[in-house]
Amino acid sequence: MYLSKIFFVLFLTFNFYGCEVNDPESGFEPAPIQPFLDVEYPVWSPDGSQILYTDYGYYGVTRDFQNYVEHLDSAGVYVINSDGSNRRKIYNFGFAEWNPSGEQVLLVDNYRILQAEFDGISIDTSTIEQLIFEGANVRPEWSPNGKYIMYAQVDCSEDHICGLWLFDLQKETKFMISKGQADATWYADSKHILFAKNINNEAFFYSYDIEKKTSQQIYTNEHKVYNLSLSPNNDLLLFDSGPMGGGRYIYKLDLYTNELTKLTERASEMPDWSPDGTKIVYVSGGIWVMNSDGSNKTNIKPLPFID
């Protein structure tokens, strides 16, 4: 599964996505280019009925993907039912992540990690509080037991150390897991974290033990990887990856056999497992949902095309 308003502008500048048409399953034909970026970071609710995501507020995109109409007032964090119905805005900026109970969300606003009460319909703005005060922080993710928050500190200035960090909600203390850029995901036991570091054109995967504060390398991928998501049974790892200069696609790695399966032929990013491990939500020009084996791809939030 990187988000403030400034981050949005920078990311948009370098990540415009292209089109792919006529895939046997989805009605589109694959092309070796990235999809148009109109949404980011879809994540399932704990009960699997809803999906949180970030929307950039595009009112319409021309079918040649060369022009678009912005409606920045509509940009923000949205919730949509898993079948694509009942789409509604819940916050004006940033990124959001459900806590394991589904009663709270983490928000990122201007590199600040916030916590707020959420009833599945709207955020109680009177409950918003900042959790972590030092540095510039993005991509928070609650541990499955709700005791920790993992996040990326992206301020690499003299007074801060950028890297992957862990915040203990009970002790209100934090410590660094890995220095430098890394993508990460939780194991179901909340005692281990799986993270990947991109070095040159390769990706190196590690399992990190929170109690021992030690890591062990478990896999190497021939291309860089992003947006890790571990299945509920800890056996299958999703990520997006691709060669330098090409599009990124979603892959599934069996952590027991090291078998790697490409799930999308259409450029795709930011996969997330459903709580029961049967579905995957991802971004590929709009929001899509597919079965765990890559079948039955369904576009639940299409691109807003204009002619």
Specify the CATH homologous superfamily.
TolB, C-terminal domain
CATH level 1 class label: Mainly Beta
Helix content: under 10%
Spatial extent as radius of gyration: 18 Å
SSE string, helix = H, strand = E?
Answer: HEEEEEEEEEEEEEEEEEEEEEEEEEEE
Helix vs. strand class: mainly beta
Shape by Cα distribution: globular
Fraction in beta strands = over 45%
- Main β-sheet, in a few words? 4 strands, antiparallel
First and last CA, distance: 32 Å
Query: Which regions are unreliable across 5 or more consecutive residues at pLDDT < 50?
Result: 1-34
When the domains are counted, the total is 1
Description:
The radius of gyration is 18 Å and the shape is globular. It has 1 helix and 27 strands. Helices cover 3% and strands 50% of the residues. Mean pLDDT is 85; it is low at 1-34.
Per-chain topology:
Elements: H1 5-14, E1 39-44, E2 50-55, E3 58-62, E4 68-70, E5 76-81, E6 88-91, E7 95-98, E8 104-109, E9 112-118, E10 123-132, E11 137-142, E12 148-153, E13 163-168, E14 173-179, E15 183-186, E16 192-199, E17 202-209, E18 214-221, E19 225-230, E20 236-241, E21 249-254, E22 260-262, E23 269-273, E24 279-283, E25 287-291, E26 298-301, E27 305-306
Parallel strand pairs: 3-27
Antiparallel strand pairs: 1-2, 2-5, 3-4, 5-6, 7-8, 8-9, 9-10, 11-12, 12-13, 13-14, 15-16, 16-17, 17-18, 19-20, 20-21, 21-22, 23-24, 24-25, 25-26
